[in-house]
Each structure stands twice: as C-alpha cells, then as structure tokens.
Amino acid sequence: MIVITLALETSVKQGSCCLLHDGRPVAEKVFSETETASELLIATIRDMLARNERGFESIDRVVVGVGPGSFTGLRVGMIAAKLIAYFLDKPLHLIPSLDVLASAQCHQPMPVITIQNAYRKEVYSACYRTTPRLTRISPYQVCDVGQVQIPDEPCIVTGDGLELYEAIIRNRLGDRCLLAHKAEWIPRAACADRLADLGVYPVVKRLEIFSAVPQYIRKSEAEIKWDLNHPVES
After folding, report:
1. Please, what's the largest Cα pairwise distance for the chain?
2. What Å distances lie between residue 161 and 36, 214, 217, CA to CA?
3. Is 35 exposed, middle or buried (0-12, 13-18, 19+ CB in 10 A)?
4. pLDDT tens across 62-113, in order?
5. At 14, phi and psi to the nearest 5?
6. pTM
7. Which of 70, 81, 82, 187 is nearest to 134 (CA)?
8. Using CA of residue 217, residue 104, residue 201, residue 15, what is the dihedral sign?
9. Beta bridge partners of residue 19, listed in sequence order
C-alpha cells in the first residue's frame, strides 16, 4: 500500500510543502519571497492533493520542519501540520530544520556546515557528518558567524547565511571550503520526509500533538523587549 506523506518546511522565507508517495515527490511548492505562506499554505496543500486526485483523508503521516528559523514561518507551518495531523489522527514527525538543510548534502563524503541567516547579525548553525548516515557533531548554535564551529578538515558549507557571510566563511576555511549549490541553500520539505524515514526523530501521536513546539533556540523580538522592560529584581 502506498504511504502518502505531507511534508512542510517553513523555517525560511522561501518555505516549501511537498506531497510524496512512498518517498517520491509527486507535487511540490516552493514559496517565493513575495508570497506569504500563512495565506497560501492550506490552499496550496489542497491544490496539490486535488491534482493527484487525493483528499486530506488520504494523508498517512505529516512531516514538519521545527526550526530554528523564522518565528512567524515556523508558527504557520507548525499550526498547519498539527491541525492536519490531529484531525486526521495521523502521526506527526518533527524534524530540525538545520538537519533538513544538511541532508541535501548527504552525497558529499565530507562534513557539512549549515549557516542559516538568523538576522540581528547572527546565524543558526550546526556541523554534521554524512556517513554512514547524517549525524550532527556540534550543538545547534545561534551566534556571530565568526563563532561557528568548524572542523579542521575540508567541508561543504550550505545555507542562506552565505548570501551575507560567504567572504567571512571563505576567509576562515581557506582552501578547505566547498560551497553547496545555491539552489540547495534552503531546507526543502522533501528532504524532511527522507529524514523522517530514519526513525531517529520524534513522532507525536494525537493526544500529544498540541504539546509539540518549534525549536526556536533563541528568544523572539517580543520576548527580548519584554525582558528589557521587565528586569528581574535581584
């Protein structure tokens, strides 16, 4: 029997959603920077299902990227994924978005460094080995690009943070630096589905779905402003 997966990855501006049959993408939408996932996500999912002569009830599992990344984008993707999984009573697979980004480089034999733009002059980052399977070898970081953990060996670097910080990364790595193809600088929903098949990430069932939360790593702008205006008295 064909397993139908709905995968969502909205941690970046160019978020995506994908419909897969037994791991094979049959429909995918990557949102442009001028499109709003919050307005288009559900309509896009409905359209993908219709074009494949499917309804929501045909979905067997839901896979979602949980961040870190855009606070707004993550909330949109998580809410949609949780509601669909809850009302269909289907499992919800929670996949870290930096892992999703790194997984597109699993064909590379060298370590992978992810550099996602976190704004405020910071990046989200983690380092991975790809063999025998994708394995994270550093903590998830939110930091200045100069503080990113880098192994002392040739490695491939990927992520939209390269738009701003390519020169700094090249300076740090020198001839040990290989950049991923620019088309692979954003995490894709189809890659999230492949990671779900590894069986190493959390799978949330119906009664626990609404306790699932995004992996923000750092505080939102609103939380920072609140802390500034409400200091804790010593």
Report:
1. 62
2. 21, 20, 17
3. middle
4. 999 999 999 999 999 999 999 999 999 999 999 999 999 999 999 999 999 9
5. -90, 65
6. 0.92
7. 187
8. positive
9. 6, 27
